[in-house]
Amino acid sequence: MKYFGSMALLALTIGSFGQAQTTQTNLGAQVAGMREDVRILVQRVGALNLRVEQLERENAALLRSTDGLDRTYATVANLNDAVADLRQAITSGDGATQSKAAKAIQELARDTNASIAAIAKGVSAARAVTTPTFNDDFEKTGITYTITKGDTLSSIASRHGSSVKAIINANKIVDPTKIQVGQTLFIPGGQ
User: Fold this and answer.
1) pTM recorded for the entire structure
2) pLDDT (tens digit, 9 = 90+) per residue, 21-55?
3) In what helix (H) or strand (E) does residue 179 lie, and over which residues does it extend?
4) Number of compact structural domains in the chain
5) How many helices (H) and strands (E) would you count in the chain?
6) Which of 42, 115, 150, 189 is the most exposed place for a label (fewest CB within 10 A)?
7) What is the CATH classification number for the domain harbouring 156?
């Protein structure tokens, strides 16, 4: 029995030694994993430190660029006060100021009317169009054509082998710029 007891003790010792080695191996792997985690965390903290420094520089630059803005811009209250002062000045304007304004308005109206009259005179001189005379001196054979959008007498004449003058004369057109879509024209010599 003594032999079996020694063997049992030896087996227990060998088993404990194997477990200790396995535990030691597991602990080594865990420590190595923790070291890698710590290394990654150190890298991330370093990157965060760089980002914080960059944000601090940008914030300082923004503060420098906005320095004094509170003194250069008017607030809504300032604008309201200025408008109120202006209203007061306008409503309490003295008679001399009002008469000066009325005189300036009358002069402006007189100058405007003179300018309009000059422009009207120039336009009426430019519009002095003599009424054309029509005759029967055009070819009596041809076609009829109904004007469509985009047509001009020139395009119609060239398309149908006629002339603008012949179309105007045959149709007794007073103003060639006022032909209308849907209007039917006789095209002398038209094909």
Assistant:
1) 0.34
2) 666 778 877 888 888 888 888 888 888 888 888 88
3) none
4) 2
5) 6, 2
6) 150
7) 3.10.350.10
